[in-house]
Amino acid sequence: MSTIFEWDSKDLEQRIKACETNPSTPYMFKYMPKGEWILEAGCGMGQFVKFLSDRGYKIKGIEINDDAVKTANKAFPNLEIISGDVSSLPYPNESFGGVLSLGVVEHFIEGPVQALKEMYRIMKPGAVALICVPQFNKLRLIKHTLGLDFADYYLRKVYYKLKGIKVAEIRHSKDVKREYLYHRWPVVGEFYEYRFKKQEFDKLLAEAGFQTIVQAPLDSVGGLYHELGGLIVSLKNLEHPGSILKFVDKLLSKIPYFHNHMYICIIKKPL
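-> structure tokens emitted (271 positions)
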């Protein structure tokens, strides 16, 4: 599994606050059960575990990054956050009423099948899971077809250079002789994450046994930032988009799943 993440404990308070405006949060409030145990599979430093626990949810977390778990345990000693792999969960069958997985299963080079099977196994019949994954959307497909996969990085680099801000060099490997299962975002060494075509991931969910309740594009402004560099989006206006950015986002959103960074799946384990 790709484990190249930067977890800074200094950012924890800000991460918890950001949960309030995260585009997946309204779906959690609508679909995650209160009174049943919920597992966040791949919880990072536990910001959503803390956020939801403070709002009356019974929730535990598991995370593969030991440093992140140590930070979470120190910050939230009353919460159950443990080290572990979401593709081999240390919980009994049918022990959770809900599961959260926010940008996790795409980081397995062997694909998300085993992680999805494990989530299905630990869920009670009728339980609901909320899973978010990066999408190989229409804009990304156009860029890939034109050989412009890295255009966003170079655009961003030029933008920040004009602003006098240094940008770290990307480390990508186009020459790795490996067959990948899905579209790989080839940045940060050999493997970082997959970006799924919607029909690919929908099929994987169905094959794992899940029934789909709701699906929706997520983080469209973030998608513009990822794909267009600093042309119209910067880190500063990601959270507070200006009128031009709002107009472009609204216009492009008329084409379903055109430029969203992630897409969200609310799925159910059949009774």
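The chain has one domain: 9-268.
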